[in-house]
Amino acid sequence: MDELTVITSGGPVRGMRAQGVRRWLGLPYARADRFAAPRPVDPWTDIRDATKHGSQCPQMFGNSAKRAQLAAPAFAEDCLTLNIYASEGGADAGLKPVYVWIHGGAFVAGSGNSYDGFDLARQSDIVVVTINYRLGVLGFVNFGEVPGLPDIPSNLGLRDQIAALEWVRKNIAAFGGDAARVTIGGQSAGSMAVSLLLQAKSAWPLFHGAIMQSGAVSLIHGRAKSRAIARQYAQALGLDQSGLERLRTMDLHELFEAQATVGAANPGTIPAAPWFDDDLLPASLADAHAQPSAPVPLLAGAARDEIRLFEIMPGEILPTRWPAMEALLNTQLGAAQAAQILATYPRTKQGRRALASDLTFLMPTRNFAERHAGHSPTWFYRFDYAHPIAGATHGLDLTLTWPMHGPRAALARGGRMTGKRAALGARMTGHYGHFVRHGTPEPGWPTYTVPQRPVKIFDLDDRVEANPESARFAAWAGRDVGVGLDGGD
Description:
By secondary structure, this protein is an alpha/beta fold. It is built from 16 helices and 14 strands.
C-alpha cells in the first residue's frame, strides 16, 4: 500500500501530494441524521478517493431564503467532513503538531473547504485540519426545549466540532500528526466556537492549545433567548406534537424559509447561534465568566475596527448605532457602569465605531484572555493594519494569513500581497505556526500579564504596547455585553 493510502477508523482513503505537502480532502469524520447527535461513520472497505472536497453544509447568510445554498452536490446534509494538509520532511522526524481550524460565518454560513492549509502546513511544518459542521437552523436552534420536540440534543454544531476532534485524536497519527499536540483555532464564529470549547469540559482532553481571532463567549444566545427563538421557529413551521418527525422529513427550503422569517424578526442578532445550555456549556454568560477555561496556552486577539464590516453589510446583524448600544449597556451592566463606559468614547463617528467594535469583539476577546491569563500562558494582539476604505475591519486578517488570489482578493485586502503587506502576513502566520509547534509565539511577543498587559500590535510595522486603551478597558471592568441575551438570561 502506498503512503498516500491511509487506513482510518472508517476505512481506507487515498490522497495526493504536491510540493512537499500531502493532502486528503473530504474525509467523513461523522454521520448525523437531521437534528440528531453525530455518530461514527458507517465503515467502508474500498479505497475512498480523498482528492476532492466534500459537500458544504446547507447554509444561508441574511434573511432571504432565495440566498440559501442547498443544491447538491456542492451543498448537502451529509457534510460532516474534514480536510488534512500534512507537510513532509522538516524538523520533526516523527509525528508533527496539528492545527484544527474552525471556520467562521456567523454560525449560519461558511466552510472549512474555503481554507487551503497547504502554505501553513509547509511553512510551519505542521498538519493542518479544516472542518465542516452543521450551520444555521440545522445546527444551532434550541428545538429540544420546544414542547413536543424531545430528544433533540443542544448545540449540534458544537457537538459536530467535538466529534471532529475525537476523530482527529483517533486517526491523525496515520497522517503524520501528533494527537498529543493539537491546537484549535478559528476566526469570528470560529473564534467564538474555540472559546466555547475552552469552556466545554468534555472537549478538554481533545486539544492542547488554542488560538482565538476576533470573538469570545458573549455573542451567543442565552438560554431564555434560545427558547424564544426556537418557539418562533416552531410557529413559523407550524409544528405540533408530531413536530419531530416533520422536522426530520420536511423540505430543506421550508427550514431555511423559517430561518429567514426568524432572522427578520430579530434584528441585531443572528437567527441561529450556540447557547448556554447548562449541559455541554455553562448555564449562563455569568457562569462562563466564573468558571475556569481549559488549562492550555492561548493566543488571542481582535481587530481595531471590527464593526466596519457590519456597517456595510445588508441587514442589522450586530448593533452599530448609539441607541441600541446604550440600551444593551444599561440593561445588562446597569446605569452606573454604562455611564462609565460611554464616557470613554467621544460622541463622534470614530467614537461610535470604537464602542461598537469593543462591545462586539475586542473587549470580550480581551476579557477572555485576561481571565485565561490568570491560570495559563496567554498572548494577546490587536490587528491595526487598515484597509483604505474599511479600516482594520473584521476578517481583514484572513486575507493576509490564508491563501487568497486574484483581483477580488486584492480588493478585499486593500492591495496586492507584496512588500510590507506580504511581510505582515508572513509574520502573523509565523507566530501562529510557532504557537502550534511550541505553545508560544515567536520571540519578541511578551506574555499577557497583569498589571503590564502587553499587547502585540500587528501593522505594516509591528510594535508592543502596554495596556492600550487602558481607560476603556478599565471602564468595562472585565464584563461583557451579551448581544444574544434578554431579560431572562
